[in-house]
Amino acid sequence: MEKIVQPIYEDNHLLIVNKPAGILVQGDNTGDKPLVDYCKDYLKEKYNKPGAVFLGVVHRIDRPVSGVVVFARTSKALERMNKLFATRKVQKTYWAVVKRKPRQPEGKLISWLKKDPSKNITTAYDYQEEGSQKAELDFKVLGKLNDHYLIEVKPITGRPHQIRVQLSELGCPIRGDLRYGFSKPNPDKSINLHAKGLYFEHPIKKEPLIIRAGLPNDQFWEQFLTLEKIKIKDKNVDKIY
Questions:
Q1: Which residues is 67 bridged to in the sheet?
Q2: pLDDT of residue 239
Q3: Residues 6+ apart with CB under 8 A from 233
Q4: Of the four, 79, 101, 158, 219, which is 20 to 30 A from 148 by CA?
Q5: Average pLDDT of the segment spanning 201-230
Q6: Across the strands, what pairs with 166?
Q7: What is the reported pLDDT for 137?
Q8: pTM of the prediction?
Q9: 3-state secondary structure the chain
């Protein structure tokens, strides 16, 4: 198994890591050790901290999903990061691998999503159902490799299972995602959805941060690196992690 705590960026205010698929971000009724506890152990050991370590969960990604997760090391940073996410001042980029080609090479998806907590499943509607929340994302097909398509997804909202259910509604369930319509599981129970990047202003330092999470260390994922198109503005080179 991959190393669980894979730091991408770290300072006195934030700890940003690349989560392996299969690890919970925050504890649930399974009792399995979550990423936040692994990260607390990492900080406690690295800085030889006595007593409890504060680490705030800023946001979550689903257990079978890999990629960027942000934690706050102070209450001030947690409050400000929560506000950045709530006001949609964090730009998110995901990569998803699907078997079916979308009808259009790029576009915007708008749905109303309603989650059933007892079944842990989200249903999409094309109208505003009672108790539903509007969900928006932009998508673009980056290319095709070995009968699979790589889609870049930029969610505008952050709803539970949003990318998974919206791509499924598009007719393109994510590889390995049995819950939302893919035909068979991945051997490791992951799904091929990766939180690849975040762009936001540091909550304390007020400088731009461009966070990029490397793909999972397996051959299937790594082949898609050939489809990556990186555009970097020179003035931000020293702010990329």
A1: 19, 195
A2: 67
A3: none
A4: 158
A5: 92
A6: none
A7: 98
A8: 0.94
A9: CCCCCCEEEECCCEEEEEECCCCCCCCCCCCCCCHHHHHHHHHHHHCCCCCCCCCEECCCCCCCCEEEEEEECCHHHHHHHHHHHHCCCCEEEEEEEECCCCCCCEEEEEEEEEEECCCCEEEEECCCCCCCEEEEEEEEEEEEECCEEEEEEEECCCCCCHHHHHHHHCCCCECCCHHHCCCCCCCCCCCCEEEEEEEEECCCCCCEEEEECCCCCCHHHHHHHHHCCCCCCHHHHHHEC
Tell which phi-psi region holds residue 203, choosing left (phi > 0), alpha (psi between -120 and 50) or beta: alpha
* Better pLDDT: 31 or 174: 174
Give Rg (Cα) of the chain: 18
- Distance (Å, rounded) from C-alpha 64 to C-alpha 66? 7
Among all chains, which residue has been given the structure tokens 């730091």?
Answer: 7
How far apart are alpha carbons 20 and 60 in whole angstroms?
13
pLDDT surpasses 80 at 190: yes
Q: Which two tokens stand for residue 85?
A: 């996410």
Name the active-site residue from 41, 62, 138, 218.
62
Burial class (CB in 10 A: 0-12, 13-18, 19+), 29: exposed
- Terminal CA-to-CA distance of the chain, rounded, Å? 23
Q: Which two tokens stand for residue 210?
A: 């461009």
Is 62 noted as a catalytic residue in this protein? yes
